[in-house]
Structure formats: C-alpha cells, structure tokens
C-alpha cells in the first residue's frame, strides 16, 4: 500500500495529508494499481516549480503540477513525487470559479495518473488523460459524500428507540442543495405505529421545506446491507424517484442502488402523472 508523504512549503491548509492519502487510495484502487512504498507530495510556490521546470524539462516557465517517477529499489522507498504550485492552482481555480481544494485535487490526480503511465504529449492522449482525471475527481466527490452521510447515519443510529426488536437503524438524507437530515427508527407498543429511520429523516427534511433529495444512507447493527422497506421506498419515491440509496453494513462497507432498481412499480395517483 502506498503511504503519502506530504510537505506543504506554504502557509496554507487547503488540503491535509489524510485527505491526499484517501484520494491516492481511491485513484489507485480505481486504476487497479497496487504500489508499495511512499508517494511524496509537495505544495510549493511559483518560483520553486518554475525552477524545477527549467532544471528538469529545459522550459523556463511556470506550471501547475510536475511528476517524477523514481520506481522502487527497496522496501518503503519513495516510488514517485508530485509537486503542485499552490499559487498557480489558486489562479486556475479563480478562472474556473471553483474551490481551490477542488483544483488541487484535480492536479494531484493528474500528477498521479502520469506516474501510472498516462501521457498527454499529443491531443488524443491528452484528451483521454483529462477525461479520466475529471471522471475520477467526480467519483471521489460522490465517494466522500457517501462516507459523510454514512457517518451521520451512524450517529443517528445511536439514538434509535428500539426496545422491542433491538434492531437499531440510522438514516441520513441529503437534499439537492446539500442539506442533510438524520433519523432513527422509533418503535411503539402498538407495532403498527413504529416509524422507520428513513421516513423520520425524510419527514424532517420535508418539514424544513426541502422537496428534492439526492442521496440517502442507511445503516443498522447488522452485517447485512440495510435496505429500506417497501413503505419507505414508496415514501422516498413520492419526493425523489431518482434518489441514490446507500445501503450500509455495520462495518461501514456499502453498496449503492438507484431507487428505481429497488422499487420498479411504485404507486402513483393519476393527478401526479399528468
């Protein structure tokens, strides 16, 4: 497994070593690559990266990212290095109107893909590499969003009121604008009045004025995937037919489904269809 060594030469907290480690693991896993040893990552100023560009590539100009592939000669050695110019990344983020962290993440992925054998020396290979980097960044964003929801669902599960079944469930649902609402299952001595965690979370969101949701994470105390019951699937469909369902095991591993996969024939009223 690759260990990320992070050196930030600038007074900035845009990214952390832990974040870059998670991003590196994600890219390597998706590229089906296994690299032992260490990967060195550095954030530097414009003059520092210009010097490297001049010394190693014979070009006297600024750039955003440079990669060096060293290979592996001994256990735990540094097999590659990625150098990112933070000031250049900040300029490019402003031009693209995106967060600096997103631009740095993209440049990190770009640099890592170079180390894994991708090239951008001609238009076709550059297109392939750029599209792959963008795709990985988008998928990593979804990965992080799912993990964040799962953590919130775990916290909600601890509040479950389940004296009869002893089966605690937590759910966290995200609105399209990023709002997150949590819920737990709440049982009742009159069993038919028991409410599932998914509906508690959804109703909290609806009562706050949200009508469209992008993703829901569900976790119980079981080693099996926790999936919504039929009633919850119907209620979720009422507001968000295209919602993603992140069914989670107690250990945090998960599988994603579209609601349409889980609920092929929902009930609708004719007035809703018109």
Explain what you see.
- Strand 3 and strand 4 (78-85) form a beta hairpin.
- The chain folds into two domains: 2-118, 3-Layer(aba) Sandwich (Collagenase (Catalytic Domain)); 150-273, 3-Layer(aba) Sandwich (Cytidine Deaminase, domain 2).
- The chain is built from nine helices and nine strands.
- Helix 1 crosses helix 4 and helix 3 packs across helix 4.
- The chain is α/β, with parallel strands linked by helices.
- It is elongated, with a radius of gyration of 23 Å.
Please sum up the structure shown.
The protein has 274 residues and is α/β, with parallel strands linked by helices. It has nine helices and nine strands.
Observed structural traits:
274 residues, alpha/beta, Collagenase (Catalytic Domain), Cytidine Deaminase, domain 2, 2 domains, elongated
Number of domains: 2
* CATH homology-level superfamily of the largest domain: Cytidine Deaminase, domain 2
Which sequence of strands runs across the widest sheet?
6-5-7-8-9
Please give the alpha-carbon distance between the first and last residues.
55 Å
- How confident overall, as mean pLDDT? 94
Q: Which helices and strands occur, and which strands form pairs?
A:
Elements: E1 2-8, H1 17-30, E2 37-44, H2 46-57, E3 65-69, E4 78-85, H3 86-96, H4 100-115, H5 123-157, E5 170-175, E6 180-184, H6 197-207, E7 213-219, H7 230-239, E8 244-248, E9 254-258, H8 259-262, H9 270-273
Parallel strand pairs: 1-2, 2-4, 7-8
Antiparallel strand pairs: 3-4, 5-6, 5-7, 8-9
């Amino acid at each position: 497994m690759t260990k990320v060594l992070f050196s930030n030469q600038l007074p900035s907290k845009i990214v952390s070593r832990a974040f870059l480690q998670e991003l590196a693991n994600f890219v390597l896993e998706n590229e089906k690559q296994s690299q032992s040893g260490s990967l060195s990552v550095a954030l530097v100023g414009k003059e520092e990266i210009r010097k490297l560009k001049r010394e190693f590539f014979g070009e006297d100009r600024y750039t955003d990212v440079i990669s060096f592939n060293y290979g592996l000669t001994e256990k735990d050695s540094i097999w590659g290095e990625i150098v990112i110019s933070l000031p250049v990344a900040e300029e490019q983020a402003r031009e693209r109107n995106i967060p600096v962290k997103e631009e740095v993440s993209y440049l990190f992925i770009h640099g890592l893909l170079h180390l894994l054998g991708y090239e951008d020396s001609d238009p076709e290979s550059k297109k392939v590499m750029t599209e792959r980097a963008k795709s990985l960044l988008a998928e990593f964003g979804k990965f992080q969003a799912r993990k964040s929801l799962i953590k919130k669902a775990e916290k909600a599960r601890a509040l479950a009121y389940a004296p009869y079944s002893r089966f605690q469930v937590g759910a966290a649902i995200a609105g399209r604008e990023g709002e997150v609402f949590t819920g737990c299952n709440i049982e009742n001595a009159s069993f038919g009045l028991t409410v599932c965690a998914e509906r508690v979370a959804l109703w909290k969101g609806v009562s706050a004025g949200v009508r469209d949701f992008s993703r829901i994470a569900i976790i119980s105390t079981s080693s099996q995937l926790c999936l919504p019951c039929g009633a919850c699937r119907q209620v979720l469909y009422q507001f968000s037919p295209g919602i993603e369902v992140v069914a989670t095991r107690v250990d945090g591993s998960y599988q994603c489904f579209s609601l349409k996969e889980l609920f092929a024939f929902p009930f609708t009223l004719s007035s809703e269809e018109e």
